[in-house]
Amino acid sequence: MRTLSLAICAALFAVATDDVDVTRAMDAARAKATAGDVIAQFSLGAMLYYGGADTPQGIDWIRKAAAQQFAPAEFQMGQLSDFGFGVAQSDREALAWYRKAADHGSPPAQRAVGDFYQKGRAVPADAAEAARWYGRAADGDDVRAQYQLAQMFFDGTGVTRDYASAYIWFSLAAGQTPLEDNRKGLLELRNIAAARMTPAAVAAAKRQVATWRPHGEPREPREPREPREPRRSTPSPTAGTRRGSSARRVSGCR
User: Fold this and answer.
1) pLDDT at position 188, please?
2) Are residues 149 and 252 in the same domain?
3) SS3 for 142?
4) 3-class DSSP state of 144
5) What does the DSSP 8-state code read for residue 197?
6) Domain ends where: 118, 138, 158?
7) Which of 66, 117, 150, 175 satisfies CB 3.0 to 4.6 Å to 225 for a cystine?
8) Does position 18 have pLDDT exceeding 70, yes or no?
9) Domain residues for 244?
10) CB within 8 A of 219, min separation 6: which ones?
């Protein structure tokens, strides 16, 4: 979300080369925001909030954009309440904003709702409901939700244990995680799942990985999402793995 906010701000102020240009750009954004332009409201709010120029005013503009059901702004309001950034920390308020953003199609918000159900924050802990929300977010290509869903399928938490589904979601998460260590860890988890599947099931799972698309994307052929195996100087992590043992969790993917 911070990346999205800053990207919008960067586009808005791309032509600003000095203080005068920045002032003009801010004035133009403020005029559009005042007129009700939701993108301008969110962009101006993010610029004021992240730039540190006027945090309360920045939050006010983000809130105005959220009131227009702009999912990125709703998610941002959830983040503020979740962590107590510029507003009072409130699990209930955070969840309410996350739900709104989730209902308007935000995969990070859908994953956040899943986190609340998994941890029992503001709602009773419910693994099955957490898995349902992680599934929606994972379908929208949220990497952390893909990891969480894979782990739940591997462990049989909130869902029926399904190593093929775990293989698919671990693979997809590995294909887009930005950190090499996390990517290797996810591939290790995928390999552990593969060790508990038949060769035919592994082949079928690989085909599903290669043809998978985020929800809403057209299904035309494209480059497979299957990640490359990392080079190894040590034996495969599946060697010596006992059936029924629990897969280790990847640091930084929670």
Assistant:
1) 98
2) yes
3) coil
4) helix
5) S
6) 138
7) 175
8) no
9) 141-254
10) 211, 213
3-state secondary structure 61-90: HHHHHHHCCCHHHHHHHHHHHHHCCCCCCC
Which of residues 9, 37, 68 is at a domain's end? Answer: 68
Q: Quote the CA–CA distance of 120 and 142 in Å, as a whole number.
A: 21
- Encode pLDDT of 21-80 as tens digits: 878 888 999 999 999 999 999 999 999 998 876 899 999 999 999 999 999 999 999 999
User: What gap in Å lies between CA 13 and CA 47, rounded to an integer?
Assistant: 10
Domains held by the chain: number = 3
Length of the chain (residues)? 254
Average pLDDT of span 82-94: 97
- Tally Cβ neighbours within 10 Å of residue 190: 31
C-alpha 111/C-alpha 76 separation (Å) is 14
Give pLDDT, residue 2.
47
Written as one letter, the residue type at 41 is Q
- Per the CB < 8 A criterion, the answer to whether 157 and 127 are in contact is yes
Q: Provide the whole-model pTM.
A: 0.80
The 10s digit of each residue's pLDDT in 97-112 is: 999 999 999 999 999 9
The DSSP call for residue 17 is -
The count of other CB atoms within 10 Å of the CB of residue 242 is: 6
Interatomic CA distance for residues 127 and 110, integer angstroms: 14
Residues 58 and 3 in one domain: yes
Q: What would the pLDDT profile of 115-158 be if each residue is shown by its tens digit?
A: 999 999 999 999 999 999 999 999 999 999 999 999 999 999 99
Share of the chain above pLDDT 70, in %: 77
Q: CA 130, CA 101: separation in Å to the nearest integer?
A: 16
**pLDDT reading at 220 higher than 80:** no
- In this structure, are 94 and 183 located in the same domain? no
